[in-house]
Amino acid sequence: MIPRPHPEPGRLVDAEFQVLDRQVLDRNGEPVVTVDDVEITDIPRGVELDPDADAPVIENLLSGSAVLGTRLFGGRPPESRWQRIRWSHVTEIGTAVELNTTADRLDASWTERWVRNHLIGRIPGGRHAPD
Amino acid sequence: MPSRRALPILAGPALAGLLCLAGCATGDPVDSSLKQAAAAQSSIVLAVDLLGEGKATLPATRTTVDDALRELASAEQSLGESPTGRRIDQIAALDDIRDATDAALAARRELDDPGTVSRHAAADLDDTASELRKAATS
Amino acid sequence: MKRLFAVALGILTAIGGFVDIGDLVTNAVVGSRFGLGLAWVTVLGVVGICLYANMSGRVAAVSGRATFEIIRERLGARAGMANLAASFLINLMTMTAEIGGVALVFQLVTGIDPLLWVPLAAFGVWIVVWRAKFSALENATGLLGLSLIVFAVAVFLLQPDWGHLGMQLIPRIPESESGSTYWYYAIALFGAAMTPYEVFFFSSGGIEEGWTVKDLGQTRANVLVGFPLGGILSIAIAACATLVLLPQAIDVTSLSQVVLPVVQAGGTIAFGFVVVGIAAATFGAALETTLSSGYTLAQYFGWSWGKFRRPARAARFHLIMLIGLVIAVLVLLTGVDPIAVTEFSVVFSAIALPLTYIPILIVANDRQYMGRHVNGKLVNALGLVFLVVIVAASVAAIPLMIITGAGQ
User: Fold this and answer.
1) β-strand pairing of A83-86 with A58-63
2) Do C315 and A95 touch (CB under 8 A)?
3) Do C348 and B43 touch (CB under 8 A)?
4) How many domains does chain A have?
5) Any idea what DSSP says for residue A29?
6) Domain ranges, ordered by start, for chain B
7) Across the interface, which of C76, C307, C316 has its CB nearest the CB of A130?
8) What's the CATH code of the domain at A95?
9) pTM
10) Mean pLDDT per segment of 10 residues, for chain C of length 408 residues?
11) Count of domains in chain C?
């Protein structure tokens, strides 16, 4: 059942097939995270979906252990635990989701930066390319 | 569209591991212990022969004997622990395994000093090995 | 000329890299208890791994995506997570077995207790993963692993009755064994030949080395020539045990026994070759399983991964491998017999095979990833046949393990 085209210009994507569980790459092709969930404009809860309503709009990509955990087991994590990637950063949706910014600028990759700064970066040779 | 149901595979291996630990002693315990001990002692005989022919190195021979001694100990232990109605056979088997272990230990000491196995020790190894083999197949 | 050299190197590396501690131990055990009556399983396993590696390599080269990224995309987060959990644990078990194997070889050469070698072996694995270039690591261990050819040489030196040996190839169950142990070891041998980590490693390795569609021909050659020759080496290991250990009823339970036939055939020189070969093969496999543990976890969660990146740019990837190595060392330091860990790891590998095989089969047929390089009709036909075999082996493994008490 295809919704009526949204009054604003944009692309219709199937969230399940084309966005969820896709690899997110930054502008240098470095992996950032996998899309664990998406945040979309409000769909009224507890109310039957109106078949004539506009298709919801994706606001953000979500990731993080709390998000993934509830995706696997159900539930809804508190919004403070969500790691968002703003949809405005997305440039391309193909076999991977590509962004217009670098991984280090994103909230979602904070664990990578933490491990880099506190552990791996401290071991000799960690910051050099392999021989 | 491919099925997205989760595959229940973790339960299987976990269960297998538990059941294995519980029921790992299958078959006749006397026979299987004798077979295990006979195999171990035979491998010592072979290793010592190869050392005598100059084909094997001393550290490798020592390792082989150590590994076999572990198997002999394991065979003795599982035989001693398992309940069996054949008390006389069990005692005879334990005697054979202990004789073999003594011969193996003597050979092991000789490997440390002087680094070769005497003809006497080698003969002991042969005798105990064939005793075990006879008992295992009887 | 340079092209020929590259092809030859690839094939030789595949041969030397085919054998790991699982193949060594399982083939020797089988040879000492069943003669060559299970050699057909090795043949079947080689055909299977050729098919499997070919498909996963093609998927990597054409789609530019590695196995676990695709598993999550195609099967979803839940199925992907179940797959990841099982694959990661079994991979960890195999990694532990391989590091234990390296320690055992050093014991064989020096006589010094293997527990002292375990931390050194693990450190060696880590330092190579940390610093060495991917291709250097592959080539060195693969070429040195060719030393294992001494097993084939030993078969000739033992001057067997070839007619009698040939007769042994006919599948039959020896009197000293039962039908259930026969089929249990058939599954173990199958799992030893078709190791799952091989797939993760092969496809992620393809991305590490930047394979494209142009490299498909070479990867096909590596697989189709290298792996069967590796399979022949496996059968040679079994044949050595059959010729020397089976007649004396010596069931293989330790690595020291695996090399006895080679020593009998060729003395200390042959011994030298075999320990170099075993050390290289197990060390190489330890590297591969360690990298696979990193690849699987990083690809599922979408982390940055790869040896082509500086460790600082793939921090969580390296952290996972470090943790895995520490766990392996701790497990081995409890004194558990690495041979026992090996024997369990091959059977559990067989149990886990469908988890990785089915997604690869699905993706290799998906035009969105593969374009015009989807599976041809022949590959699909073979693929389906093997799917049946793999599922049958996986399902039968646990009941047989219970019935036979893990092969006793």
Assistant:
1) antiparallel
2) no
3) no
4) 1
5) S
6) 28-137
7) C307
8) 2.30.30.240
9) 0.89
10) 77 83 96 93 94 88 83 84 90 95 96 94 93 83 91 94 86 84 95 86 84 84 88 95 93 95 94 95 93 92 87 89 96 95 94 88 86 89 94 94 86
11) 1
